[in-house]
Amino acid sequence: MQHHHLTASEWDALAKDPEFVALLKARHRFIIPATIFFLLFYLALPIGIAVAPAVMNQPILESLTVANLYGFAQFVMAWVLLAAYMHAARSFDDRAKALVERLTAELAK
Amino acid sequence: MTQATLVMFAIFVAMALVITYWAAGRSTSRRGFYTAHREISGIQNGWAIAGDYMSATSFLGITGLIAFYGFDGFMYSIGWLVAYLTVLLLLAEPLRNTGRYTVADVIAFRLRGRGVRAIAACNTLIITIFYMVAQMVGAGSLINLLVQRINETYAIVVVGLLMMIYVLYGGMLATTWVQIIKAGLLLVASIALSVLVLAHFHFSLFAFRDAAMSANADGHIVDLLRTGLFFSGPHGAFDVVSLGLALVLGTAGLPHVLMRFFTVPTARSARISVGWAMGLIGAFYLLTTIMGLGAGTIVGQHDIGKHLRDTQAIRYIVYHPQQAAALNAELVRNHGYIIPQTNTNLAAPLLADKLGGPLLTAFVAAVAFATILAVVAGLTIAAASAFAHDIWYSLIRREAGSEREHIFVARTAALVVGFASIFLSVGLRTFNVAFLVGLAFAVAASTNAPALILSLTWRRFSRVGAMCGMLAGLISSLVLVAIGPDIMGAHAIFPLRNPGLVSIPVGFIASILGTLIARDPESEEMFSQLQVRANTGIGAEI
User: Fold this and answer.
1) Is B338 helix (H, G, I), strand (E, B) or coil?
2) Which pLDDT value is given to residue B304?
3) Which one of B236, B240, B329, B356 is most buried, counting C-beta atoms within 10 A?
């Protein structure tokens, strides 16, 4: 699809296309909470160590401390969020593909 | 060990040269030179990103930090893995869909000012050159420590020249494959070492844990599972948070990593490459933890330190941090020289020596050289493209000129960047430049990250805002490091080693304030196009 020929108002029209708006909303519904979640989940570790070192160094499981376990939990969190996004993104791909096909056909007319 | 190391390193160099010869014919256009014709698959790119990330800093540095400081060293691993979530969720796909050759392309996609592109290009050059000098000086002292016959200057020049050959002839394609092979070798070495460590404890995690909880640190016992061994002192707490912020946003601004997303054909493959990279990097960091704790307990900190030429100085620093900092400041004032802080880099090779014998040590050392070489090559392409594409093609020639001219400029830029970094690294070889990696991350997190993220998400974000943000982020991180403990020692005006806690908010706030003082209708008008293209891939560069 040749994008160079589109004017600013045509791009605006594309951006307001209901199917595109729905796709954008779906992406944001995943990405925004996921980003906020992982930033908070991650920053809780250094902030926890900074604010409450005694709590973080408390052994809780087989002499492993809160900080140790929470540190490993970061790996699990990163991989789980990765898997969840990879799964969700498959439907985004399909919707984007269908949208592009429809728009290309419409613009060809 | 010396000869076996050199032989194995020579085999790697030969392999890389064969790849370069094969890639040379495919790197004759800018598209080939910068992006390998966008024909790298998601899996290949994932391995290459992992290769970029498993630098000498990670392999030798993190293993050493964990051997000496336990959990505090592990904090780096966590930050670097989690950082990829920022890339995955916010950047990888939009970058592929809207970028052509450089990070500045994406920032300037709708912020079409010459000023925006000029500042973004300068930031890329600054970040990559800091990073590169740190890697090359590290390479010099490492090669010198492992193979005593080769002095630092010689080692830096050899690494620099080899890297230039790969980049000049093989472009992005050769660089990518060198990274992929290196990542594979590094994982093999790490798995072998980790299995040997676990075998040493008869595969009992409990025995391993007990050893880590009572590691012998030169006569006294430390618990490597506790926090606060590295980030200690009155400001240690803030330093941890500052580092965490810089790590998690810095990756989202590193040009040589972001540039990798221009080498794949689609947004989907960009996403898949982050997926593979996160799997590989996470696994690698778990292995690093085993190797680090293994080195700390089996080799012992005393024996790691013994192999250093400046052992005395380092012990002094470890046990008398206050006096050492004062002494550092004194030395800086009078001689411009800083005593290296704890050089823990030999933990991994010494562990190999203890557990696997000379052949494994040689392999680990050769892989460490290969790592430095490959990472430096990726950095050179990023720096060369910032100069040739952003400054020459876009700003000076205003998108005119023949393909031949521009590929010539790109190669020349790579040559200049290569020589500049060799000279800088030789000149700085006696300084402790490890802080330059942290500085590169802080600059990336305070300049590129706000500009990229705000440009992709905030309609009102303007050219003035982008310029204010990037300049404020750059200046604040440079100034804060200059007046911080790494440069000024005990007399530091700014107490934190990592400026991120201040400079990242400064970068974001300046971007927002700059945007609020001046509306920019032209850039706002472009936002719809950016949004549609970033999310659908319509009109993406192919």
Assistant:
1) coil
2) 67
3) B240
CB burial string B86-115: b at 16+ within 10 A, e below:
bbbbbbbbbbbbbbbbbbbbbbbbbbebeb
Entry pTM: 0.89
Residues with Cβ within 8 Å of B137's Cβ and at least 6 positions away in sequence, in order, are B152, B156, B425, B428, B429, B431, B433
Query: Max Cα separation, chain B?
Result: 68
Give the mutation candidate from B53, B62, B81, B85 for the A interface (greatest A CB count, under 10 A).
B85
User: Looking at residues B182-208, what average pLDDT do you find?
Assistant: 92
CA distance B93 to B101: 15
Q: Given a cut of 70, is residue B310 above it in pLDDT? A: no
Half-sphere exposure of A109 (CA within 13 A, CB side): 5
Residue B100, pLDDT score: 87
Which pLDDT value is given to residue B325?
Answer: 56
At B398, is the secondary structure helix, strand, or coil?
A: coil
CATH architecture group of domain B2-233+248-308+343-536: Up-down Bundle (1.20)
**Average pLDDT of span A71-91:** 96
Burial class (CB in 10 A: 0-12, 13-18, 19+), B423: middle
Mutate to test the interface with B, among A31, A72, A74 (most CBs of B within 10 A): A74
d(CA B287, CA B293): 10
Q: Which residue has the tokens 């916010």?
A: B90
